[in-house]
Each structure stands twice: as structure tokens, then as C-alpha cells.
Amino acid sequence: MTNNNTASNNFTIEDYSTPSAPVGMAQKDSTLTSNKSMLLPNNDLEMKTDNIFATPIAPDIDDLPSNYFDTLIVPNGAILYYNDVTPYTESSKAEIQRYEKGVLSFDQLVDKNPDQLWLYFMTYLNEKPQLKVNIHGYYTEVFLLSTNAVTNSRVVPEFSFSIDLSPYICEQWQRVAVIPSGKARIAGETVTFRDALEQYTLSNKKIKEIVLKKQCHGWNLEELKKKLIALVRSTGYQNSINVTYNRVNYQIAARSSSKLSQFANSTVVHVLCCISCLCIIFGPIHYCLHTIGSARNTIVAEYMMMKSDDIFLQLNAQIIVNSVIQRSRNSYIAHFT
What we know:
Residues 1-21 are annotated as: Disordered. The chain crosses the membrane at residues 268-289. Keywords: Membrane, Transmembrane, Transmembrane helix. By secondary structure, the chain is of the alpha/beta class. The chain has one domain (51-333). The chain has helices at residues 114-125, 182-187, 193-202, 221-233, 259-264, 267-274, 278-293, 309-325; strands at 80-81, 97-99, 102-105, 130-144, 151-164, 175-179, 209-217, 240-248, 251-255, 298-304, 331-333. The protein has a seven-stranded mixed beta sheet, with helices on one face. Strand 4 (130-144) and strand 5 (151-164) form a beta hairpin. The longest helix is centred in the last third of the chain and has 17 residues, at 309-325. The radius of gyration is 23 Å and the shape is elongated.
């Protein structure tokens, strides 16, 4: 993080901090192309093709953030591909709860039956994850309190707009893989998606959980963040810029149908964990219950980006530039063609 502070209205901060809920980034060498048009074309907008759109070198996997899972370490024989799955004729009937992260089920139907658990995951894998980029511009105003000689400061927002990147995410998942733990890799163990489902349904734990995480593959989001900052700077904007990402519907989870499991995940327990000193008692208990019940394996589904981030920038540069100049506070859907 780089911060440059100046006590004036031209106060400038170069903010390259990661968002509070960072989104994983992926290498660019697997970007799909498609003629599919999901939005009206922006023929009235000129494409901006400055050299800030130059293709960066993809990072080493060691540089990827902790919430991005590399499926390349999974043996090809253990990866489930979309084209290899027989289409189901009927959607899962398991009861679900919807929330920002995705869907969650406590239904007995998926508790002990691997076939029903399979159908549950296949049903909600058909709902692709959503991704937005948020671009904020602001400066910090420093002032002197009249009552004493102490200075204070406040953030003054100048623009704040978001662009929905969902049109660039493929409607269908491409592959599902179980990411082996470090210990499993050393032992040479391989776990398939079906193996993970059977391990979960065979467990007799009162509290247990299995989670599938959806991630987008094909864009380097950290590099895109730098390009967006450069594009905003090209308008002459000199104050602080913050670029973050928001994910929605990126998780499918199932938990034990036991009363203890439902209690551990109830609103009452969550409230108790947050109220004053009770968090000291209930917080660790709540965390331990989830840790003990969590599946050993990390399951990941990948959805490919249908066009490169360079094309996204070329098609949407004018929207971004205009939003900065007009000090916009609106939300937009990314142009795809």
C-alpha cells in the first residue's frame, strides 16, 4: 500500500489496498472467445486503445491471493468437466436458503444420499457467479478544530460507480475439481468430486459442512485494477482512487440437518457472538463447531471469462472516462459487444 498525504483540498492518496473481501485472480492464457451478445452494443462510444491496455505477463501461481484456488495442481483424471456430465432431467428438491454468498441447505434429502447431494450441486452450478468492479474517487480534507489546536480529517467522495462484469462470465461452468491439501499432495492422494460427496454423506457428525466455491478464470484482476487506475488518471484526475471487487452467488453449501447444526447456524447464535463480552464465549465455540464440521477438501468450480480484460476495457473505457468526468454515482452493466 502506498499513501501520500497532504493537508489541503488537493490531498492525494495512492490507494492500492486490496478490498475487504478480495476476489481471486486468474491467469489470462485460458480466456474463451464467443460471439454471444448479452447487451445492446455501444456503437455511440469510441473505443480507447491507449497503451495502458497492453497485455501483462501472467503472474506465477505463488503470487495469486489466498482465496484463488489453482486447479492446475489437480490431476486431469480427477477433474470433472461440464461436457462429461449427463444432463439431469429434474432439479434438486432440497430446501435452500439464499443469501449474498449463494445457497445453503440443511435438508435431510442431501444429508446421507450422495446422489441427491450431487443433484443439489449440479442444480445450483447452473447459476453462474456475479462480479462487479467498484471505482471510487475521493480526497481527504484536513481541518483545524476551533475548540483546540488538534487537526482532524474527513474523506470527501467525488465519484463512486460500479460496473457489472457478469456479461463476461460464461453461463456454464467449465470444470469442477477438489483441491488437495498440502498433506494429501505429499502423500500422492487424489480425491474426485464424487469421492468428496460420499465422504460427506458417510459422515455421522452432528455438525458437518460441505462447500463448493465458484471462481472466475481468465482475468488477472490485480492487473485489471492497475489498468483501471491508469484509465482514471488519463482524465486528469489527481486525487485518491480505490478499485474494489464484489462477488455474489459464489458458493453452494450443505450442512447437517441435525438440530445442533441448525442451532449453531441460527440467528440467535450469530447475535450472541456479536453482543458485548458474550463474543468471548460464543465466538470461539461457534468457530470451533464450524471448523470441526467442515469437509477436509476444498471444492472449486471454474467459470471462464468469455473475452479478455483488454477487450472489456476497450468496450467500456468511454463509460469509465465519462463517469469520472461527470462525477457519477451510478451502476452500469458492462458492454459486451
